[in-house]
Amino acid sequence: MGGPKEGVQKQIQQDWANREYIEVITGSIKKITDFLNSFDMSCRSRLAILNEKLTTLERRIEYLEARVTKGETLS
Amino acid sequence: MPLPKRVVEPVHVARNTVSQAGSYGASSSISNELEAVTNGTLANTVRQLSSLSKQAEDMFGELVREAHSLTVRVNSLQIRLDRLSVNTKQLDSTGEEVSLQDIHMRKAFKSAIVFDQQVLSRDTMPAPMLEMYSQCDKPPPLYKLNPYREDGKDGMKFYTDPDYFFNLWRLEMLKDTEKMMHDRGKKPHRPKAEGSGGRHKKRVRQPYSTRERQRQLATQHGEYIMPQDNSHYRAPHQPYEYMEESTMMLGLSMNDQHRPSRPNSIELRRSYGPEQLHNHHTGNNMVDGRIYSPPPMNIIDSNNYAAPLSSNNMMYDESNVYNHQTQQNNYQYTGSMGEVISPLGTPSRGGRIRPSQPPPAPPSNNNSNNSTPTVSSASTPTRGRSLSSNRETLPPPPPPPIENNLPFTEPLPPPPPPVSISPPLPSANIPPPPPLPPMPDLPASLANGDVKSPPKQKSPSNLIIQSKPLVLPADCNNVRPLNGIINDLKTTVTNISSGTMTLKKTPGPGHVAHYDPRSDLLKAIRDGVELRKVEKIKQKEGERSNALHDVASILARRVAVEISDSDSASGSEYDSDGWAEETCA
Predict the structure, then answer these.
(1) CA distance A20 to chain B (A)
(2) How many CA atoms lie within 13 A of B457 on its CB side?
């Protein structure tokens, strides 16, 4: 009687340990995904801001170039 | 329904691990079930990790690409900046002279910046999203019902139409610009009243005809995942972006005659007209549409079209419709022959016929129009009789006339018109020719001469003369008294002019030459205005089609119109109208 009981208890304890282990792994996976998502979001927002600034800069430079350079004449 | 952009694949890590293990074989093979579950779960976790790494790689790839494009832009900007600084340092205010002439001759500045268009199109869709999208259910194959739709619309558009908002916006913008152009010389206050009136119609969603879809398919075939349906989803882009704009713009041109309501009423067909217009610029579309639509529908359309004639847009369609009518008439008359004739060929013939019809017989026209159905129906029986009688009386003549007739008809587009007029008559007189489509023409002319008043026949007199040898006896038997006098004169002329078959043939082309200018003149007098309008409309459509699908071009044109518009009042009014519209919405 005592032998199988101990065996079952051992198995259950082992199983609990395994589940804890798996929980840690899955939890870290979640963390990774969260980080990836936030990273992606922040990167995109920064890139978007940068893109916006670049666009305005390009326009300004275009304007300045048009101001400075002599435009072609119709003749 | 929101779609997650990226999904890490095995969502339920611990599920089904035991059953999988059990399925492998006897329960004896699994010594420890708990361990099996643990192992399965671990394996799934590893799969999850791999999926996650894949998604992360994809994500970083996107970021890197974007960052790279930014660096490229920054570098180019830096280069431009350096050049600019050098240029500015070289500027010398003292030494430089600018002549007034140069200033005036200077070209206007034109920006080379290209703005992004169709930002949310299928092309710009990120790969993971595309993957998710491809897993979605396809819309039901409603396009298969298109052949059975009598209004010619695309059934798919009732279910989903990604182009809807863009088309809405496009129509509004174009209408606005046109209206502004028109109103420039007129009173500025006009648009307001119109705008308030037509707003209700605007709300109704109206799908576009199949032709549009067909055109898209033809032009951009192969781009899509789904072979036929996809054209609808090709451009999911503009809708949301421009929806607001469109609603704002609605105010001015709200009166949309062409997007009335659901497909139940006649209005549908009327509305159908403009759509046809849009789609018609490409010739193929017409063909497709025609083929698609069942013949009865054409009749209905033509009848309906007659009314809306007043609107300019309709003109183009109407001409087509007219062809249809004539075409159908031909079908009825010729019976089996009509079927043989290709749909494409017949319309053109009908078009030619129409102009030529008027000269010979205004009275005959009425007769034909009124009695066409009855006559045609009646003619069929008579045809058989006449055939037998002709054959009995004149076996030899029939073959030569056929030859003569053929060359005749081919060179002469105008002669066919008599066919349409006379269809009933020919059947009575000349049954043998039926195998040849052109044949009916001659018989028609003959028949007219025989049965109806001689004056009409003057123009076709040549025809009669030629064909006389064949049919004259038969005619004499039937209605000799009517034509007798005239026929005698004609016979004398014919005797002089034509001694043999070959001689007859030669006069044919000569007559043709005579006929053509005549018929053309009459045609021009009769239909000249209409034809020109059609051309104009075609041009307009062409312009529109060019500008239609390009957001930038539409906006540019609009801006140009607005800027050139010296009337500030109209502009402010326009704005206010737009705001009012939006608030109401």
Answers:
(1) 10
(2) 25
